[in-house]
Description:
By secondary structure, the chain is α+β, with helices and mostly antiparallel strands.
Amino acid sequence: MRFKTYYVYILKCNDDSYYIGVTNNITIRMSEHENGRSIKAYTFERRPLKLVYSKEFTNILKAIAYEKQLKGWRRAKKEALIEGRLQDLVELSKSSKHGSTGSP
């Protein structure tokens, strides 16, 4: 039995914001973002876009849960993940729980 693959991804937009999504085909989804499939989409006015992070899953429910988790993170924590500074994630989590101010 072949498992389906899902991807949670982060795009960096031209306005320096991040977009987080989930898809089962990252190549097609990136093309949809870049080509502006929907004028109402968050990324439409923020092109060009750069794929800065992705993680594979074989369970869609776990992928969706991870996507929601990342969307709740502050900007500093997202950037630590993107930059591969995984050791910083714990400390950044503690900072946010103690009322640390920072950009979202």
